[in-house]
Write a structure and sequence with these properties.
Blueprint lengths: L1 H27 L2 E6 L3 H15 L2 E6 L2 H11 L7 E5 L1 H9 L9 H6 L12 E13 L23 E2 L6 H29 L8 H9 L5 E5 H10 L5 E4 L9 E9 L6 H12 L1 H10 L3 E2 L8 H4 L12 H5 L1 H10 L4
Parallel strand pairs: 1-2, 1-3, 5-6
Antiparallel strand pairs: 3-8, 4-6, 4-7, 4-8, 4-9
This protein binds fe (iii) ion.
Length: 339
């Protein structure tokens, strides 16, 4: 009798549990959870628009890319994250090596995102393009003197160059692209030339590179273009300009912010829908302009401010290579004493 009552209770409990699981499942289908190292103000307006368009809510958690990857690894199967979003192909590639993504190669994504801006296996997609190019003092540099990344190693720039620290992923990805384009020896000659030409110890931030040029400490530097955009917005008429590097050769080194669907996504379908939506013309027009970047989807025009800097040829190296050659780039910079 007692046994029977227990069995009945267990059955009742089981029904309750199954019932609540169904309920949670139904709710989860309408929510996509994103872990993002891209800042809140750059993603929140997009997610809001996505919800308006599709009725799917987006929950998000922002933090440092490395911390979020560790968190997903610890959470494993139980991670709430359906999508991971971060900046720089080097970091996207690293996340791929940590097995947090699944492969997603839908026709929509293949059509919207050019092949050099996405992982060949479909683990991540670039969603905005940032160009890392030459910035110079319009008071002390004639743009006719400028040409390539390699040229910044020339003696004529002795004591006139400012660079960001080699610790930053942006520097690692740029140097990885130079290793790819020029070979290991060629890259070593170029980067050691840069180090010889430095006016000061490498700067912590791109904005510091530009401030050093404005302060007269140096005349040329390398920056991501959106930092230039921010500076010009705050200080209109600042005597600085961008120069598109390597236009006769490999093109400007570009990088991406991007995202992938997680391996353990509980709402993979919703996450794929969000990723496809983010690659669409509508979202791309918003995505790039929020941070003065370029759309990854090449059918979408850049916003007015960014377009005013002129068109340029991009380096079409597949960005997974920036990750694959990252260790070589780091070893090279250590060897020649690039701090
Ligand atoms: Fe940045």
């Amino acid at each position: 009798m007692l046994t029977k009552r227990i069995i009945v209770s267990i059955l009742a409990l089981a029904t309750l549990v199954v019932g609540s699981i169904t309920l949670i499942q139904a709710a989860a289908d309408d929510v996509v959870t994103v872990y993002s190292s891209r800042k809140e103000h750059l993603i929140q307006p997009l997610f809001e628009q996505f919800t308006k368009d599709t009725g799917i809510e987006v929950n998000y958690l922002t933090g440092k890319g490395g911390d979020l990857i560790e968190r997903m690894k610890l959470e494993g199967n139980n991670t709430p994250a359906d999508m991971f979003m971060t900046v720089d192909a080097g970091d996207l590639w690293y996340a791929g090596t940590q097995d947090v993504f699944r492969s997603v190669l839908t026709d929509t994504l293949l059509n919207n995102i050019p092949s050099h801006l996405r992982d060949p296996e479909g683990l991540w997609m670039g969603l905005s393009v940032r160009a890392r190019t030459i910035v110079y003092s319009t008071e002390r540099v004639d743009p006719f003197e400028l040409s390539t990344y390699a040229d910044l190693a020339d003696d004529k720039w002795q004591g006139r160059l400012c660079l960001r620290t080699s610790k930053k992923i942006y520097t690692k990805s740029l140097v990885a692209s130079i290793v790819h384009n020029e070979g290991e020896e060629g890259a070593e000659a170029i980067v050691s030339g840069w180090v010889n030409n430095l006016a000061a110890t490498p700067n912590a931030k791109d904005s510091h590179v530009m401030n050093a040029i404005l302060a007269g400490q140096c005349d040329v530097g390398l920056v991501n273009t959106y930092y230039f955009g921010r500076l010009i917005e705050e200080t209109p008429g600042a005597p600085l300009s961008l120069f598109w590097a390597n236009q006769e050769t490999s093109g400007v080194h570009v990088n991406v912010s991007g995202a992938g669907v997680t391996k353990h996504a509980s709402n993979a379908e919703g996450a794929i829908q969000l990723l496809e939506w983010l690659s669409s013309a509508k979202a791309q027009a918003i995505y790039g302009s929020l941070n003065k970047e370029y759309p990854a989807n090449q059918s979408v025009a850049s916003d007015e401010v960014v377009s005013a800097w002129g068109a340029f040829k991009q380096d079409d190296m597949n960005l997974a290579i920036a990750g694959i050659l990252q260790a070589d780039a780091v070893a090279l910079m250590q060897r020649i004493g690039y701090k």
